[in-house]
What does this fold into?
Amino acid sequence: MWEFLKQLTDPNSIIQYGGLWLLLFVIFAETGLLIGFFLPGDNLILLAGILCKAKPELMQVNFFTLVALMSLAAILGNTAGYWFGRSVGEKLYERKDSLIFKQKHLVVTKEYYHKYGGNLTLILARFLPVVRTFAPIIAGVIKIGFVPFMIFNVIGALAWILSLAGIGYFLVQIFPGITNYMGYIFIALIIITAIPVLRAIFKKENKNQN
It folds into this structure.
């Protein structure tokens, strides 16, 4: 089980050992399951785009099929999160912290809703670790209409998948040796995407102290 969990957090292992189906499951889980916030969605999508061009035998599908499948997984994941939020309702705010659930994640996500509104948050959240897991759940809790939710769910999924996978796919054409520097690229992407979330957490903590 521990080895399996390590593979789920390593983009290279996910694609090398699990192939396309594990890739799709991880995207679904990160965007649809409460426990999915620790999964490496951004790095995984970027790597999928790179390998689709550099090592097509691993992906076994062309770029457009890959984007369509990953987008579908992201859309279905958010939809599952939405219905989970609707079924749990306000009780989620009373849930105690555990290994896989932290109230501070809900607080940070609610801050984005207050600042940007529900529609824009559903798009922005796709690019923010942790927030993208909890955004559809909060949408269900506060009972955003299903039709507007689905519209921005689809827009957000397409923007997220197309941008990251597209960057990876075309980077290989410009820099053929980029696969030798994946570790550095992953670290840079983690830092860039984590900065807005960390700022929101620190800002909320400072408010509470004052």
The chain has a mean pLDDT of 82. Residues 87 and 141 are 8 Å apart (CA to CA). Residues 2-209 form one domain.
